[in-house]
Design goal:
Helix content is 81%, strand content 0%. By secondary structure, it is mostly helical. The chain folds into 2 domains: 7-103, no CATH class; 133-208, no CATH class.
């Protein structure tokens, strides 16, 4: 059997030419064995009808095996020639023939170095795409967070608007001024409370010394 991989032929036929030839060889060999069994059966019937025949079935089987070996040797030689012819003239694609799916390589030829450069560029583009996808996901998460903060701020502004409306209804004037005044008063109260706490601590210390 041929050891040439014949990859281009395999691409075209969908099977390796060597596999095809092997199957043909096995089919011929099986047919040869079956034919020998038929011949042997006919000979046994013919001899069985001859009176006084001293040839036994075992002798016929030995003769059949010898003849089968003789036929197989000649068959192998003939098949080797047939295989060579079929692989060269029937199952072989000439070097100057290009398959339709490979014509694009003829139009756009490239070397191994150019192919490797394209592979490297493709890998870089894939990395950039992954990085951009991650950045887009982070931006989406930030946008969702900003939407949530905006919603909370709108609630606070609405609350201030409602408080200002209440202040106007009760004649409290501008809400912002009232809120600023309230803040100042609260700070004064905190200062007074802090002063009272300090005086209280001093009085407790004085009582302990007495």
């Amino acid at each position: 059997m041929s050891v040439d991989p014949m990859a281009y032929e395999t691409q075209f036929f969908g099977f390796t030419p060597q596999t095809c030839m092997l199957r043909v060889y096995v089919a011929f060999q099986d047919y040869l064995f079956e034919m020998m069994l038929v011949v042997e059966g006919v000979m046994l019937k013919k001899l069985d009808g001859i009176p006084g025949c001293k040839i036994s079935p075992s002798q016929i089987r030995k003769c059949t095996e010898k003849f089968l070996l003789f036929m197989k040797e000649h068959f192998d030689k003939l098949f080797a020639k047939m295989e060579e012819v079929l692989l060269q003239l029937v199952l072989n694609i000439p070097k100057n023939v290009l398959l339709p799916e490979d014509r694009v390589q003829e139009q756009y030829p490239y070397s191994k170095e150019e192919f490797q450069a394209l592979q490297d560029e493709l890998q870089q583009l894939q990395q950039q795409c992954r990085a951009e996808a991650a950045a887009e996901q982070a931006l989406r998460a930030e946008l969702e967070e900003q939407k949530a903060v905006k919603a909370e701020l709108e609630k606070i502004l609405q609350c201030f608007d409602e408080l200002e409306n209440i202040c106007r209804e009760h004649g409290a004037g501008n809400f912002k001024e009232s809120f600023a005044l309230l803040t100042q008063s609260s700070k004064k109260l905190q200062d007074v409370l802090k002063d009272v706490e300090e005086k209280s601590k001093k009085m407790k210390q004085h009582d302990q010394l007495m």
